[in-house]
Amino acid sequence: MAFLPFNITRQKRLKVVIVGGGYAGLAALTNLLQFAPDTEITLVDPQMQHLKITHLHETFRYPLADLLIPLTDIENRYGCRHIPASLCFDADALQDYQAKRQLVLNGEVVDFDYLIIATGCQNQENAHNEAGDLLSLYDFTVTGGADLLTAFLHRSDAPHPVISVVGGGATGIQFLFEIKQFLDRIRSKADLRLIHSGEHVLEQFPDGFAKYVEFRMHDLNIAFYPETYYCEQQVGKIVLAEKVTGKRFELPSDLSLLFLGKKQQNMFTANAFGQVLADQKPLHNIFVAGDCSYYQSLGSNTLTAQSAVRKGKLVARNVLRHAGFPGLLEPYLHHELGYVVSLGASDAVGWLVAEGNLITGLPALTIKEVVEAQYDLLLAGIDTYLV
Ligand SMILES: Cc1cc2nc3c(=O)[nH]c(=O)nc-3n(C[C@H](O)[C@H](O)[C@H](O)COP(=O)(O)OP(=O)(O)OC[C@H]3O[C@@H](n4cnc5c(N)ncnc54)[C@H](O)[C@@H]3O)c2cc1C
Questions:
Q1: Contact (Cβ atoms closer than 8 angstroms) between residue 359 and residue 350
Q2: Can you tell me the distance from the alpha carbon of 44 to that of 274, in angstroms, rounded to the nearest whole number?
Q3: Does ligand 1 lie within 6 Å of residue 69's CB atom?
Q4: Cis peptide bond upstream of 326, omega within 30
């Protein structure tokens, strides 16, 4: 919530370039235009569509197309301009952008008053193999889950194909339960297992999450291999290693799906106001938000859509504050209000308000849906976020 006043009356129309049209970038865009509708915004993103990635595991139930918002729609809705390009940043380039307030994109010089970097965080896995029996999160951003799995099952000649999901973090677990329900719906005889390097799933969450999820996995006959590292998927088998001893072993497996989490690279450190730090000094006209940012502040730096949206909104307000008078910026203080991990279409586990406040089943699912609906409203230009 904006808690410092800001004066946005200016002589000239502000020019802002936002690099990255994900959660943070679009939150910044909608908030800039909410408070200063005449801002001239250029959105830079190599993709032609915004992906509502927090729903990606649901593509076993809904078409992937439902999660894609063409950036031409954003251009038309908000009167901004999208340039399909990928911008590279290094320390020298940032100093240069700050000094010149200029970028060169696809050979075109683009001037700006403020630059907002919101390029997200890459996923660990980008593995592929010739046999097509190894998939990663990226594959699901191109083809929906139902189509990918159906194609695999059609290709497979095994009477009881075995599918190995690797990674017991929030993404892996959400996919695991959707896959289980999808296989049940189509009456597939495929077996499902989870490989995880930790002792329990969802270790970054309160204990109750792991207990609930492992209990549900047991109920659904999903085999669990904790403290196990994935080595490789070979034809008809998966090669694994025990975490403690390093001993390698193999299990039958016809398909491996890797959900190994995010790479903490191309991260930008910022001060508490979201301004990028170079040599410990803020670049006053360059802000950063979302998964690619680490703020030196009391607020939470988790790699979540929740934080990405809050940081995006904050940098939009701080851009306007910086451009106005008296130029006092607002620090980032947002803390997570809760987190819900869905377990298929009708179950979920989460916490709300305080980490000890565990919720499961329909109440948890309802909260997740409300949060998702809030983001949809933000994209439609209606900001319902109170904090
Ligand atoms: C399956 C799944 C489920 C999730 N569920 C939840 C959830 O329930 N709740 C939650 O809070 N979080 C969830 N998350 C995490 C959440 O999606 C991320 O934290 C959020 O997307 C981060 O937003 P962002 O804007 O920083 O990055 P992104 O949304 O990843 O957007 C980055 C954008 O930048 C663009 N880009 C990248 N590099 C460049 C470049 N060099 N130049 C120009 N553009 C570039 C990309 O094309 C992309 O459009 C989930 C993630 C996944 C994968």
A1: yes
A2: 19
A3: no
A4: yes
Residue 166 forms part of a structural domain: yes
Summarize pLDDT for 202-215 with one digit per residue, the tens.
999 999 999 999 99
Asked if 209 and 103 sit in the same domain, the reply is: no
Encode pLDDT of 243-286 as tens digits: 999 999 999 999 999 999 877 677 999 999 999 999 999 999 99
State the helix-helix crossing angle for 361-379 and 23-35, rounded to 10 degrees.
50
Cα separation, 23 vs 29, whole angstroms: 10
**pLDDT over 80 at 387, yes or no:** no
For residue 184, give its domain range: 134-258
Which 8-state DSSP code applies to residue 79? T
> Residue 142, CB half-sphere, CA atoms under 13 Å: how many?
6
Ligand 1 atom nearest to 22, measured from its CA: 31
Instruction: Provide the sign of the torsion angle of the four alpha carbons 86, 66, 304, 379, taken in this order.
Output: positive
- This model's pTM is above 0.85: yes
Q: What are phi and psi of 143, to 5 degrees?
A: -130, 135
Question: By C-alpha distance, which of 53, 9, 45 is closest to 28?
Answer: 45
Whether residue 7 lies inside any domain: the answer is no
Q: Is the CB of 21 under 6 A from ligand 1?
A: yes
Q: Which residue has 């159906």 as its token pair? A: 150
Reported as a pLDDT band with limits 50, 70 and 90, residue 128 is: low
Q: Quote the ligand 1 centre to 21 CA distance (angstroms).
A: 9
The single-letter code of the amino acid at 321 is R
For residue 59, being part of any structural domain is answered with yes
Report which residue type is found at 95: Q
User: Can you tell me the distance from the alpha carbon of 276 to that of 293, in angstroms, rounded to the nearest whole number?
Assistant: 9
Ligand 1 atom, smallest distance to 341 CA: 8
